[in-house]
Design a protein that fits this description.
Elements: H1 13-22, H2 29-33, H3 51-66, H4 68-76, E1 80-86, H5 87-90, H6 93-103, E2 106-109, E3 117-120, E4 133-134, H7 140-149, H8 160-173, H9 175-178, H10 184-197, E5 200-206, H11 211-224, H12 237-246, H13 249-271, E6 285-293, H14 305-321, E7 325-331, H15 337-341, H16 343-356, E8 363-366, H17 371-374, H18 380-390, E9 395-398, H19 407-419, E10 423-426, H20 428-435, H21 444-449, E11 454-456, H22 461-464, H23 469-479, H24 483-495, E12 505-507, E13 512-513, H25 531-537, H26 539-561
Parallel strand pairs: 1-5, 5-6, 6-7, 8-9, 9-10, 10-11
Antiparallel strand pairs: 2-3, 2-4, 12-13
The chain binds zinc ion (ZN).
């Protein structure tokens, strides 16, 4: 079943002999925070017990306790690209608390869940107002409760839905920290440090820019076109887009480019990049994805389609204008009322803008729900996957609903994925925590049956309170992935990254590189022409070459250092 995809056949003998012997055990963002809690609450109550997360956590815990060498080998394993993560969700709560202390923030009982704390800014006089207390003065017990409030750490999971709601609620609780523009650079530095610890080479992270300016544009668009039914007709989109251009869309994009430069420069300074004292995290390259909040809502709870349209216009334009923004994504709870009710219109927006900005790359969260949340037999289980692909998605985030489709529908969706040469981003940890999906319920193996390119991603490591290595531990222990499978996952992640340029692999499943490099070992230093000139022209292929070099190095030295060399 798996062999038909040639999952293992691309590997050189030395790779197989080394790794397989070596490792026998292998057999949501400021926008989350800006969404009213009701807007990200599930459309349907899902009150089943979360057995998936219990099994998931137990497997990770047991493996860490009983197989530390395997865990260390997996930590060191070069993982390639982490293609799906939210900058604000990637930061550990402990780091947020340190940033909040530096900002002079306060904490107070969460209004919607008094068993939790939320962070609030101090007043203009620097004092904590009302019943809030200074974060800097929090004792050990309060700090633990803060960590638990800002993440899934020690969460009790009374049922699936509560875990889902806790996950999304955290973004609002640390929003007073993550939403401050001066904290973006420290957040980036934290993300890159974590990526380096997890042996990741490249990260594509979702982060909003110029939120206020885009919000203003959206408000003007709504004033001009107040009727929501207007947004359902694509014949109106040129007029809407023209209006946005007339009121300053280009200025917002220019502002975002300046903002990005500031964040990047400050993050470089924090990490000491370019100096003798640079941190290892400087070796992790990264790019941004511009996100769109799929749950933007009016005060009465109806979809704020003007805001969604404006955010897509801005994100597609920014991605085209700035090479540091390599694509666009949709975020926030997919099962929420606004997202469910306006999905088709949102896809229509993307279809329109894709024609205007053909160079912009699109990755979409899709199928991040189950029948427990949206109801058994809900057409959205298939339609969100199919609709996202038809709207131009080249990567699907999560794709969990694939597991709940009929064989015929799965084949249809798989066909659409292949048509788009798309990849599915797999995130075990957040799927278990948010959806209660794990083990045999997870679509991971089903995607493999259909030979769909897959990559592991971290999603929201800070909120999950888990490292990226956990995804790989789960892949190995739950699904018996071989070393060859892991290498394939790493290679696919780079192959489907949005780094510009032609990819190195002509046929990754067959282990075939492009003809220019067909006779040389991938990753070798100073490859001869025509491979050298091919690499010179493609940033993506160069990144892939670097990944191959890192893999070779790991297999020859890193693995040996761990006592995992060929026997
Ligand atoms: Zn996500």
């Amino acid at each position: 079943m798996i062999l038909k995809c040639n999952y293992a056949s691309s590997l050189r003998r030395f790779v197989l002999s080394c790794m397989l012997v070596a490792l026998p055990a292998f057999a949501a963002d400021p926008d989350y925070g800006s969404v009213a809690p009701s807007a990200v609450t599930a459309a349907t109550v899902c009150s089943e017990p979360n057995r998936g997360v219990v099994e998931y956590q137990e497997l990770i815990r047991r493996t860490r306790e009983l197989e530390p060498e395997l865990v260390e080998a997996l930590r060191q394993f070069p993982k390639g690209a982490d293609l799906h993560n939210h900058l604000s969700g990637a930061v550990m709560p402990e780091d947020y608390i340190a940033m909040g202390v530096a900002d002079g923030d306060c904490y107070v009982a969460d209004r919607s869940d008094p068993s939790m704390y939320t962070i609030v800014a101090a007043g203009a006089d620097g004092a904590c107002g009302g019943s809030s207390r200074p974060l800097a003065a929090a004792g050990q017990a309060e700090r633990l409760k803060l960590v638990n409030s800002l993440s899934m750490h020690r969460y009790g999971y009374p049922d699936i839905r509560h875990g889902h709601d806790q996950f999304f609620a955290t973004f609002g609780r640390f929003g007073a920290i993550s939403g401050m523009p001066w904290n973006t650079a420290p957040m980036l530095a934290a993300l890159l440090r974590q990526a380096e610890r997890d042996s990741v080479s490249y990260v594509e992270t979702m982060n909003s820019f110029q939120s206020q300016a885009v919000s203003t544009l959206a408000g003007l668009l709504r004033q001009r076109f107040p009727d929501n039914s207007f947004y359902g007709n694509s014949a109106n989109y040129p007029a809407m887009y023209g209006f946005l251009l007339g009121v300053g869309l280009n200025d917002a994009v220019a502002g975002a480019r300046k903002e990005i430069s500031q964040h990047v420069n400050r993050a470089n300074a924090i990490l000491g990049c370019g100096t003798a004292a640079k941190e290892p995290a400087c070796g992790v390259s990264y790019a941004f994805l511009a996100p769109v909040n799929r749950n933007a809502a009016m005060p009465d709870g109806s979809p704020d389609l003007a805001r969604i349209f404006a955010q897509i216009a801005f994100s597609m334009m920014l991605s085209t204008a700035d090479s540091r923004v390599v694509g666009v994504n949709l975020l926030s709870g997919e099962d929420a009322v606004v997202s469910m009710g306006s999905f088709a219109t949102q896809m229509q927006f993307f279809t329109y803008f894709r024609k205007l900005f053909p160079a912009a790359r699109i990755a979409l969260h899709a199928g991040e729900f189950t029948p427990c949340f949206v109801g058994k037999g809900n057409p959205a289980l298939k339609d969100h996957l199919a609709g996202s692909l038809k709207a131009g998605a080249e990567r699907i985030g999560h794709g969990v609903s694939f597991a709940y489709l009929s064989e015929a529908d799965r084949a249809e969706v798989a066909g659409l994925i292949k048509n788009n040469n798309a990849l599915v981003e797999i995130m075990f940890t957040s799927n278990a925590q948010i959806l209660g999906v794990a083990g045999q319920d997870h679509p991971f193996m089903r995607y493999r049956e259909h030979c769909i390119p897959l990559a592991f991603s971290s999603d929201d490591g800070g909120v999950s309170h888990a490292d990226f290595t956990s995804e790989w531990i789960y892949g190995v222990k739950q699904y018996g992935l071989s070393a060859a499978d892991l290498i394939r996952l790493g290679r696919e992640s780079f192959q489907h990254s949005f780094i510009p340029g032609a990819p190195l692999w002509d046929d990754l499943a067959a282990g075939k590189t492009v003809s220019q490099c067909g006779t040389v070992k991938p990753g070798m230093s100073n490859p001869p022409d025509p491979c050298k000139s091919f690499l010179g022209k493609s940033a993506k292929a160069r990144a892939q070459w670097g990944y191959e070099a890192r893999l070779t190095d790991f297999l020859q030295t890193g693995a040996k250092a761990l006592g995992l060399s060929r026997h």
